[in-house]
Amino acid sequence: MSEASVKGSGFRLKEDWWAILIGLGIVGAATLLFLNGSSLRWLAVLPPRWKEFSQVTGDLADNWPRYLAQFVFWLLAFSASLRGLGYRFRDVAPAFGLLYAAAYGIFVIGQWDKAVTYNLEAPLIALFAGLLIANTVGLPRRFDAGFRGELYIKTGIVLLGATVPLSLIALAGPVAILQASIVSIVTFLVIFFTAVKLGLDRRFAATLGVGGAVCGVSAAIAVAGAVGAKKEDTPIAISAVVLWAIAMIFILPLAAKALLLPTGIAGAWIGTSEFADAAGIAAAQAYGGYAGKVAGIAGTSEQALQAFTLMKVVGRDVWIGIWAVVLAVVATTRWNEDGEAKGSAPDAREIWRRFPKFVLGFLVASVLVSAVTAQFSLADYNKIAVAKLIGPIKDLRTWTFIFCFFSIGLTTRVRELASTGRRPLAAFSTGVVVNVVLGFVLSVYVFGSHWATLGQ
Amino acid sequence: MSLWALLQGALLPLPAEGCAPCEHFCTDPARLELQMPGLASLSSAHASVRAGDGLCLAHQRLINGRRRCEDYA
After folding, report:
1. A222 vs A323, A350, A455, B28, CA distance in Å?
2. ipTM value
3. Which of A149, A201, A267, A450 would staple A404 via disulfide (CB 3.0–4.6 Å)?
4. How many contacts (CB atoms, under 8 Å) link A and B?
5. Could you read off the pLDDT of A287-331 as tens digits, one per residue?
């Protein structure tokens, strides 16, 4: 992103609130239409599953007004949000046009009936294509204004709330919090003490630790600010998280596929052991795509996403404010011998300030759709509510995820990432190994029956 | 601390006695993302989790701006 692409510096709504506005706007509109006997289905168009390419061209010939309307809808919603964040429409619009066209192409490839055979899952293609473009030919830097993966993934997670019944959150949430807490605390301690043992500054060690233990880059910047980390240390922690998170998008689904893990278990493992929401959703969605297509993999595609979201968002992300405040207290009282952390001080109000607000949108969407569908029998729920209310929201959600995955690829310029250096990378990688093994044991052996039957 | 004080503190900008008005304190999301390659890839300087953090250009640290120091300008 160029500096020139963001205008002004006054008060702005944070990105999380924009994601909530778009996400709940869609859920609210879908609910109103549903209650009036209609549906958002017309707008929620997707390329069809196909064997012959003529099926794709036929669909486009029939449905191009729907794709055009959907493109205009997304463009207006996201460009208004990005305008609110200070970006210029003239930078956002061409970038988003490119993003939508690419997302359509990626969808088409992912809908091919041989896609799974060749490992052509849409999330993986989107990420790989974006990485390839960004690290070879590249695109104009001003287009980064439209490649805002975090806004797209947060919008998608709010929409995901509409497809996760409130009862499921109530039942599975405590297990997710327990499992995630065990792994988060152990991972943090391993990275922190390894880093300190290797001679790194404790503030840097804490930044690295939460990057691996809580919510990746977001946690790293939150704790770096809370403890007053050195300016040059935070990009190193970010690099370690980005490199491992992207590697894990490919490694975790392939490992789970090799072990034929049920989708719910794989989703829980990914939720425990991925480092960023977007990266984890890419991995979980890719794995969910194997359901019903790879012999031996039990469960549904939704179970992978639901288990991931419960584990990562409910189990890990929401606690970032508490981590930040606790570490700020420790930094101020125990690590401040020479008063080097000028400018940072503990403040309990940061628990709310740093709360990932988009999670509220996720919960409100779940409450709203659960309330509307509460009177349905299971048969009617599947026949009526899924077809007319939840299905269209789910399909729009899938678009936002593809926008996100392609944006991640397009904005990850490996040459620009700060060099991690051996010691930080060694400390972080030690935590990764512990995290992956512990996450696997808890997801498969300790809570395996819980995750395998999630939502059933 | 009362609930009202908690809500007030959570919703209002950084306190006046903090670093917010300091000329060394940079909270511009674009500049933060430029200074931290990879931040916009898997997160964002516009995210809620960043709260009011900024770069202290005097001490070259990422800080939450809650404690004004002697270099305040």
Report:
1. 9, 10, 33, 15
2. 0.89
3. A149
4. 198
5. 999 998 889 999 999 999 999 999 999 999 988 999 999 999 998
